[in-house]
Amino acid sequence: MFRLRDEEAAQRILETIRRYGVDLRFMHVCGTHQDTLVRFGLEPLLKDVGVEIRQGPGCPVCVTTTSEVADAIALADAGCTIAVFGDMLKVPTPNGSLGDAKARGRDVRVVYSVEDAVRMAAEVKDMVFMGIGFETTSPTTAAVMVENLPDNFSVYSCHRLLPPALHAIINMGEFKIDGLIEPGHVSAIIGVEPYRVFSTKYKVPQVVAGFEPLDLLMAVHMLVKQIKEGRAEVENEYGRLVKREGNPKAIRLLEQVFRPVDRAWRGFPVIPQSAYELRDEFDAHNARKVHQDILDARAPVREEHRGCRCGEVLRGLIESHECPAFGKACTPRYPMGPCMVSREGGCNIAFRYRGKL
Fold it and tell me: Coil, strand or helix: which one is 196?
């Protein structure tokens, strides 16, 4: 599982947790945390010492709605070039996927950065970059917006803010959360202060964690210790990267380029102030404004494939293997929803490492 030294350290942490004699349920909101939990076989080890961890809405591809993907397909069908990250290609909608649009001859291109899309704009008539991701990747989109952009380049922003989703999870009350494991990479941008309200107002213990197996085990130990001591605080296990104030330069850039707006997430109702939209001064490069006529003409779509329970996975209500379609009607080759498509999706991770569940 680990190097011998790490395995010994892991066993010591687990034995310490066992001595507390707990029965707790935590949630994380990060696809990389889920990958670490499953790939290294941590889930059964933690359950054995009284701790269950559920995945929340921490996969940016997964929380992007069917309507947003359908908008991108409509733009492609109308003659725009669509630039996306690779995981978006296979996300299914009632109108097919972006990969299907590409197979029909539409100009859909996989890029590795927004800069790739800006550069490719010189080759096409209308370039639309589909911006996906939380506060981790949003600054890269913001950075190009303050440069001299080609007139034919626009951004269709699907960027999300994580703290409002945590508010929604807690207030919906569907899932008993004894503690939250916060994502290290998002926290490297926003710092730890945006999480403090969940501890002060809702009395939820929290730990910002890194992505190695020992990071997660230490985060669980820190949460258990808070609970046993009657504390509800935000602690930072990932201090080697995450600072209390985050990245001030990136935060200023986000505030300069984006404004928070209300938007639905997959599996959730509209979450207030939970998405980044370009500020009005960037209307000339906002795909929702530049191509409003195309988007307004698109027919409504059903948000979830019948039988797909991706929304419940994202709210922590079920584990992936509890969905009847998992590994049968729904596989990475023939996905029913984005949780089986994205490498950060709980279903895709569970399928890849299903021998370790």
Answer: helix
Which of 39, 109, 50 lies closest to 355 in space, CA to CA? Answer: 39
Q: How many CA atoms lie within 13 A of 53 on its CB side?
A: 31
Q: What is the DSSP string of 31-54?
A: HHHHHHHHHTTHHHHHHHTTEEEE
Kindly give, in sequence order, each residue whose CB lies less than 8 Å from that of residue 138, ignoring residues fewer than 6 positions away. Answer: 131, 159, 254, 258, 276
- The Cβ of residue 208 has, within 10 Å, a number of other Cβ atoms equal to 26
Q: How far is CA 124 from CA 119, 120, 121, 127, 308, in A?
A: 10, 7, 5, 7, 36
Triad 56, 62, 65: Cα angle to 5°: 115
Q: In this structure, are residues 99 and 89 in contact, taking their beta carbons and an 8 Å threshold?
A: yes
The per-residue pLDDT for range 89-130, each reduced to its tens digit, is 999 999 999 999 999 999 999 999 999 999 999 999 999 999
HSE-CB at 211 with a 13 A cutoff on CA atoms is 16
pLDDT in tens, 129-182: 999 999 999 999 999 999 999 999 999 999 999 999 999 999 998 888 999 999
Q: How far apart are CA 243 and CA 251, in angstroms?
A: 13
Structure tokens at 183: 């994502």
Between CA 350 and CA 38 the distance in angstroms is: 7
Complete domains list, the chain, with CATH = 61-161+247-297 (3.40.50.11740)
CB atoms within 10 A of CB 153: 26
How do beta strands 234-236 and 108-110 pair?
A: unpaired
The enclosing H or E element of 154 equals strand 153-159
Residue whose pair of structure tokens reads 């190695």 in the numeric block: 212
